Structures are given as structure tokens and as C-alpha cells.
Amino acid sequence: MPNIDFSALETLSVSIENNIAHIQLSRPEALNSMVPAFWRELPAVVRKIDAESQARVIVISSQGKHFSAGMDLSVFTNMAKDFQGEPARRAERTRRLVLELQDSFNAMEEVRIPVLVAVQGGVIGGAVDMICAADSRYCTEDAYFTIKETELGMTADVGTLQRLPHLMPQGLIRELAYTGRNMQSEEAKACGFVNQVFSDQQTMLEAVMKIAAKIAMHSPMAVAGCKEMINYTRDHNVADSLTYMATWQSGMFQMPDVQEAMAAGQQRRLPVYAELHKKSSGM
Question: A GO term (biological process) for this protein (predicted)?
Fold first, then answer.
């Protein structure tokens, strides 16, 4: 189980209320650029919330004018220092580093609970990689999205090119990747990359929190099943996905939550569901 103190974070702030965890990128003075600490803290926080069943949904936003300027220059500088020594061993070390960076965003996809992101201003480079791993995306009118890595002489390597083709048309993702141009909020909404566009950050956060609250009202088991099945079917064919659904349902479909949902409907009250079990910390 991740061991991290939410009050001692360098790059994030975390609050949990009414089964909703709100994670904020908290370095606005540095445009929320992703320094080395960020890559450690984000997956640890997300996984701890899930492992300890502290919330039923996570909302990620940021402080300041821009969501995030992406990978901080310090990360590139540290990587440059590693470009020495015997080529095969150097390459193996680089491969492990990229996999570790990828894992920071994989965590958002792998946890049992939905992750919603609410972005404003610039969503640049690594920030695009990050939000691609979320369940749903929302933005303000002034938001723009940039696959910046191409302009920096490298290929985006932390998830954008692997996840975006599942989120928008192939031709568009290729254009964005090849050119490195900005995609404005209107275009992001038109192609389905973001669910909704809002006039300002406060309006956006209020709306996204309402969506999170609606999710949190439902059976955590049912929502976890939805996330598991949608992620699975993205990467498998229909026949395999249906078979997996049947296998999942044979064990996970039990009556208590169904009976509670029906009783709550009849009695015109909110349903009360048990939380998902905490994950085992191992032996």
C-alpha cells in the first residue's frame, strides 16, 4: 500500500469530502510544471486513495492560470546527464526511466475509481499525456492542448500517442502530433476529447464536482465494474470483452447493492452502499 503523507506533498494538495477526492496541482508560480517529485507523488496519492477506499471518485484540477506546462526542464537535464557510458546499458536505463514515468499516469487508469480532470489555460506536453489517462476531461474556454514534444525534437513517450487514438479521430491525432500545434477548447469539444467546455474555472469546478457527486452516489462496486469493462474493451475485441464481462459478472454480481438501490428508489431516499474493501498491504 502506498505510504505517503498528504500534508507533506511538494507538488500537489489533496482534500477529501463526501466521497470525492480533489487533487490539485499546486505549483502555479512554475506553471505546474512536472518536476521529479510530481512523478512520484501523483501515482502514490492516487493509489493510496484507491487502496484505502478513501473516496469513490477523484477530481484533478490545478491552481493558477494554466493547468500544466508539462515536463519540467529539470527532468530533461537529469536525463541528459545519463547519456553517457556503454550504449546498451545506457539504453536499458533510459527504457526503465520511461516506463517509470509512464507508470505515473497508468495509475490513474488502473485504480478502481473514476478519475475526472478539469483543466484551464495551457495543457502542454506531459500534461496531455496525463489527462489522456483520465476517465473524463472537462475544460474552460481558454484551454488549449499541445503535443509539445515534437517541437522539442522528441517523440511523446508517456501515453499521448497510445491513448489519444482511442479518444479522437486518427487523422486529427496525427496532425496534432506531427505539427505540435495548439488545439483550442472548441475543437477539443467538437472531436470528443473533452466532455464539456465552461466559461471559467470556478464554473467548471462546480459542474465537475456535481458530476463527481452523482458518481459517488452509486454503488462503488457497479462503478468499478464499469471502469474495468470499458478499459478492457478498449484493448480487446467485442467477443473477448463479452466473455470477460460474463466471467466478471459471475463473481461480482451480488444482490445486496441491487436490493439497496431498489429499496432506496421505493422509499425515495438516497441509497447507502458499503465501500470497496481496502486493498491488502501484503504479508
Answer: fatty acid beta-oxidation
Other C-beta atoms within 10 Å of 119: how many? 30
Q: Which residues, other chains included, contact 170 with Cβ-Cβ below 8 Å and sequence gap of 6+?
A: none
pLDDT for 23 equals 98
Q: Residue 177 in contact with residue 161, Cβ under 8 Å?
A: yes
Answer for the pair 13, 26: CB distance below 8 angstroms, yes or no.
Answer: yes
Q: What is the DSSP string of 190-217?
A: HTTSSSEEESSHHHHHHHHHHHHHHHHH
Bridge partners, 124 (sequence order): 146
236 and 211 fall within a common domain: no
Q: Which of 150, 77, 60 is nearest to 113 (CA)?
A: 60
pLDDT tens-digit readout, 153-199:
999 999 999 999 999 999 999 999 999 999 999 999 999 999 999 99
pLDDT digits 0-9 by tens, 144-155: 999 999 999 999
Nearest Cα to Cα of residue 56 among 91, 82, 20, 106: 20
What is the full DSSP assignment across 138-157?
A: EEETT-EEE-GGGGGTS---
Same domain, yes or no, for 188 and 246?
no
Tell me, yes or no, whether 89 and 29 share the same domain: yes
Q: What is the DSSP string of 89-127?
A: HHHHHHHHHHHHHHHHHHHHHHSSS-EEEEE-SEEETHH
Q: Which domain holds residue 107?
A: 6-216
Model confidence at 80, in pLDDT bands (50, 70, 90)?
Answer: low
State how far the alpha carbon of 37 is from the alpha carbons of 8, 10, 40, 211, in Å.
12, 7, 5, 30
Residue 279 pLDDT level (bands cut at 50, 70, 90): confident
Sheet holding 144-146, edge to edge: 122-124, 144-146, 182-184
